[in-house]
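Supplementary Methods. Inverse-folding protocol.

Structures were first reduced to a discrete structure-token string of length 226. This string, shown here, constituted the complete conditioning input.
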């Protein structure tokens, strides 16, 4: 994989499935810039760390990014967080249009920080979270503005045209939505055309939010959405 990144710099689309981790690699610690890369998809064995590969790539014109794989337990990561996605976005400054994440914990990857960098460099159209975890700290940071990048992250959410939450674990969803309603932020998401929430494990209290959403839907608030 590293040899491909190193020697084929004109690739426009790149998909890696990392099947078997090796004890060592030939990485020199640098980043290889793929100027023409538009799509990057990286899949790995659950519990392994794909850091070496993503740390080796810079893609300043990337439009589509997909990461699929469960990360090692947080206590095995330096600082208890996986900063590679955030560092990649900061190093590449890509005009990202779609971000698809599978099996990742929002707190582990600093989702708010990642979204804030996307806001600085481009305008995200689609955010898709599948089998991910939106933990309480992420929800609290987003609604209470305890994260320095929350304003940029909120602007990304406002500009989305498609938002998907599939098979996710969502903590504090009711409080989160109530806060967004009270602040008026939820009504400023005027560009959203597709909202998909399927098979999510949402903690108690969601009934109130579900009823509110349904009443808004029946009143025609989301008539333009799929």
């Amino acid at each position: 994989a590293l040899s491909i990144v190193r020697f084929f710099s004109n690739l426009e689309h790149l998909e890696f499935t990392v099947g078997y981790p090796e004890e060592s690699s030939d990485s020199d610690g640098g980043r290889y810039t793929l100027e023409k890369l538009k799509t990057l998809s990286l899949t790995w064995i659950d519990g392994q760390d794909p850091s070496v590969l993503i740390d080796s790539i810079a893609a300043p014109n990337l439009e589509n990014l997909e990461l699929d794989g469960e990360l090692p337990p947080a206590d095995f990561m330096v600082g208890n967080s996986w900063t590679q996605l955030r560092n990649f976005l900061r190093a590449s400054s890509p005009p990202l249009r779609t971000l698809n994440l599978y099996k990742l914990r929002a707190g582990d990857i600093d989702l708010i920080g990642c979204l804030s960098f996307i806001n600085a460099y481009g305008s995200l159209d689609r955010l898709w979270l599948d089998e991910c975890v939106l933990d309480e700290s992420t929800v609290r940071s987003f609604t209470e503005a305890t994260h320095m990048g929350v304003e940029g992250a909120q602007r990304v959410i406002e500009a989305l045209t498609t938002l998907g939450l599939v098979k996710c674990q969502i903590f504090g969803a009711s409080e989160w939505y109530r806060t967004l309603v009270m602040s008026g932020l939820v009504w400023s998401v005027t560009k959203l055309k597709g909202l998909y929430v399927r098979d999510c494990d949402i903690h108690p209290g969601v009934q109130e939010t579900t009823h509110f959403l349904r009443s808004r839907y029946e009143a025609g608030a989301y008539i333009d959405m799929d």
